[in-house]
């Protein structure tokens, strides 16, 4: 139609070029394995990306090709985040903490011809090399870590390639609907599944992340993404920071309490993001040691539910706001976020906390719903519980080259998330379980997430995980695995936890005394989430004691 607004392509190179033009001096800080810090800015990043694009071209990368990365959060990984899509190729971030079988599956399934890797994973990739026949070039990114047990042979050196590359700028025109990224799910059941992102979806997702009522990344922020760049796009933060000109602090591979605390202090970090496990460790560390965390205004948490008690503890102990979001590989990932809305400041502190611990409302550009077993639409009344479905501008329409697609969408085209939730009348979603983790007792669902959150409210509990076991009378019965933070007699602990649980659960829903297991640590997935299938397997094998 005449006079219609311009059709401007929403692409990754547009993000990069603007960052270099408007914020050339803003810093990108990267911590190496040995603790040393490197500094660059968006102007320098742009120049290195241009040269890296020429390296990729010389290695034979063509538009549409998938190029793999196996790397921690670092400046070099950020360079790849831009150079690969700017060339029209597909940035395939590989979660190198998956099992080697899964990595083999993922790299072969994606048909990666080039694999960029941190020196710290060189030994693992070298071992896998015979099983990766399609990979023609391995490019190692040094980061001064210990010498690896082996290197893939032959391998190329990242900095050597960059030093000899042309600095001629040559950005191809890119269709915003072309693929820009690829990430596989963790594959907790079956083989991992690939999700292919487009330039447009990544651009819109990044804008969504920047909105004030979303994560709200701003130019004035210094952002520390603890969430890995090798999984779910580091929640869109690398692009969102470049979009807004925020300083980025990339922490490398050491993500325990002390290294994170010292980066927050030394770089004056204002906003950080990661899974609950990281924040539990950091909280413990900050309680025992003295750091200046006064710059930090927000910790963004997602990937698993953050217990309300931990949200409260950060605010009370350190004046730091915790912001919960929900998403998955298939949703780019950021999909819902829980901030209090205007009228809610009148709620009591405990009611405010309840809202903030929910997974929240969908970002503009997305729609959520809950569906019953027959795909019927359930009401948003805080009561009805069903599977979360979602659609929108950065939601997958099906998996990459995968016949499991047949099951991915509802008949009316919404993506089925496999998460079980209820939604309140304001649109705040509250996840009660993953479909495969649901405990069904006497025909009713017991929320393992609610149970875990109550157990960790006990001051002597560090972590808890609840799974179901078959039970002759109740169909399934909950079993609690508990990690204590202090030495305490187990009998007394069980009594105290049962009292806590009794405030929310009916007595027939509670775990029996024999169904409490005190353990040293809980099994975690490659991205730090509780691995319930391992616990269920232990129970089945009778090894829980
Ligand atoms: P996977 O590869 O295991 O699917 P994802 O990182 O994509 O890994 O995980 C997505 C899942 O993580 C969601 O489906 C949901 O079950 C869980 N999840 C993510 N964010 C939250 C949250 N804030 N609260 C509870 N669960 C969450």
Give structural notes.
The chain is of the alpha/beta class. 29% of the residues lie in helices and 24% in strands. The strands form five sheets. A nine-stranded mixed β-sheet has the order 2-1-11-10-12-13-14-15-16, sandwiched between helices. It has a seven-stranded mixed β-sheet with strand order 7-6-5-3-4-8-9, with helices on both faces. Helix 9 packs across helix 10. It is globular. It binds adenosine-5'-diphosphate. Residues 185-186, 188, 232, 302-305, 324-329, 333, 359, 417, 419, 431, 434, 527 line the site of adenosine-5'-diphosphate.
Summarize the structure in short.
With 545 residues, the chain is α/β, with parallel strands linked by helices. The protein contains 15 helices and 25 strands.
């Amino acid at each position: 139609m005449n006079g219609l607004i311009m059709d401007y392509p929403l692409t990754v190179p547009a993000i990069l070029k603007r960052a270099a033009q408007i914020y050339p001096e803003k810093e990108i800080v990267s911590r190496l394995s040995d603790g040393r810090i490197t500094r660059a800015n968006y102007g320098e990043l742009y120049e290195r990306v241009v040269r890296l694009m020429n390296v990729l071209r010389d290695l034979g990368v063509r538009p549409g090709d998938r190029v793999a990365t196996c790397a921690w959060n670092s400046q070099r990984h950020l360079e790849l985040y831009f150079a690969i899509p700017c060339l029209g190729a597909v940035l395939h971030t590989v979660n190198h903490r998956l099992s080697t079988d899964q990595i083999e599956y993922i790299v072969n399934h994606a048909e990666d011809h080039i694999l960029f890797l941190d020196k710290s994973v060189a030994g693992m990739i070298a071992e896998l090399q015979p099983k990766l026949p399609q990979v023609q070039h391995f490019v190692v990114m040094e980061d001064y870590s210990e010498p690896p047990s082996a290197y893939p042979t032959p391998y190329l050196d990242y900095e050597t390639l960059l030093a000899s590359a042309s600095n001629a700028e040559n950005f191809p025109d890119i269709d915003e609907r072309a693929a820009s990224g690829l990430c596989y799910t963790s594959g907790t059941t079956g083989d991992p599944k690939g999700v292919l992102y487009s330039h447009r979806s990544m651009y819109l997702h990044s804008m969504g992340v920047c909105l004030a009522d979303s994560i709200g990344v701003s130019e004035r922020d210094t952002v520390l993404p603890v969430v890995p760049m090798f999984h779910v796009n580091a929640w869109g933060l690398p692009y969102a920071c470049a979009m807004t000109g925020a300083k980025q602090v990339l922490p490398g591979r050491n993500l325990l309490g002390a290294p994170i605390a010292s980066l927050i202090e030394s770089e004056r970090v204002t906003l950080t993001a990661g899974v609950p496990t990281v924040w539990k460790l950091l909280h413990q560390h900050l309680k025992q040691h003295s750091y200046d965390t006064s710059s930090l205004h927000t910790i963004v948490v997602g990937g698993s539910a953050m217990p309300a008690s931990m949200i409260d503890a950060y605010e009370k102990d350190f004046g730091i706001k915790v912001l919960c979001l929900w998403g998955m590989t298939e949703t780019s990932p950021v999909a819902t976020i829980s901030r209090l809305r205007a009228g809610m400041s009148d709620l009591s502190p405990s009611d405010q906390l309840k809202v903030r611990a929910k997974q929240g409302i969908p970002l503009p550009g997305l729609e959520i719903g809950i569906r019953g077993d027959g795909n019927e639409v359930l009401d948003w009344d805080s009561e009805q519980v069903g599977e979360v479905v979602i659609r929108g501008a950065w939601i997958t329409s099906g998996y990459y080259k995968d016949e499991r697609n047949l099951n991915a969408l509802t008949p009316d085209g919404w993506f089925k998330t496999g998460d079980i939730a209820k939604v309140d009348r304001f649109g705040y979603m509250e996840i009660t379980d993953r479909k495969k983790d649901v405990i069904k007792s006497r025909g009713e669902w017991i929320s393992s997430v609610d149970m875990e959150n109550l157990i960790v409210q006990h001051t002597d509990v560090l972590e808890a995980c609840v799974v179901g076991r078959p039970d002759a009378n109740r169909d399934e019965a909950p079993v609690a695995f508990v990690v204590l933070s202090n030495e305490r007699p187990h009998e007394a602990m069980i009594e105290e936890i049962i009292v806590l649980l009794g405030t929310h659960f009916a007595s027939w829903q509670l775990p029996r005394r024999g169904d409490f297991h005190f353990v040293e640590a809980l099994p975690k997935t490659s991205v730090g989430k509780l691995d319930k299938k391992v616990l269920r397997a232990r129970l089945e094998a009778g090894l829980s004691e």
